[in-house]
Write a structure and sequence with these properties.
With 115 residues, the chain is of the alpha+beta class. It is built from three helices and eight strands; from the N terminus they run αβαβαββββββ. The protein has one domain: RRM (RNA recognition motif) domain (Alpha-Beta Plaits).
Length: 115
């Protein structure tokens, strides 16, 4: 699946707005998407480093129109934690020489709140 097919839309509620300060973003995702697919899609679409993905199935509500009752479909929600302080990665290469790699990741998802 393409990243655009996995991430359907952001979920903006009072609780999710508070969690943004901690680097946690909430998305409505495809029901068959795995945590690995969700993480790679977020990294590809928003150019951020994903640290953790929590998913849950939200049961559809029972709705009523007049005398008729029906049920909304179940859907999947993902809470994605991103790295808010991307730092340089250092490692030793051949010959014991220390190499620094600066990952060009953003510290927040600017498109989330429509900015």
């Amino acid at each position: 699946m393409l990243p655009e097919e996995i991430i359907i839309k952001p979920i903006i509620t009072e609780k999710s707005s508070i969690d943004i300060q901690e680097g946690k973003y909430t998305f409505h995702v495809a029901k068959k998407a795995t945590k690995i697919q969700i993480a790679s899609s977020i990294e590809a679409l928003f150019n951020v480093k994903v640290l953790n993905v929590n998913t849950m199935i939200v049961k559809g509500k029972e709705k009523r129109v007049g005398a008729h009752t029906g049920k909304r479909p179940d859907w999947k929600k993902a809470i994605v934690t991103i790295d808010t302080n991307p730092a340089e990665v250092t490692y030793l290469s051949k010959g014991g020489k220390e190499v620094k790699v600066d990952k060009k990741y953003k510290a927040s998802i600017d498109e989330f709140m429509g900015a």
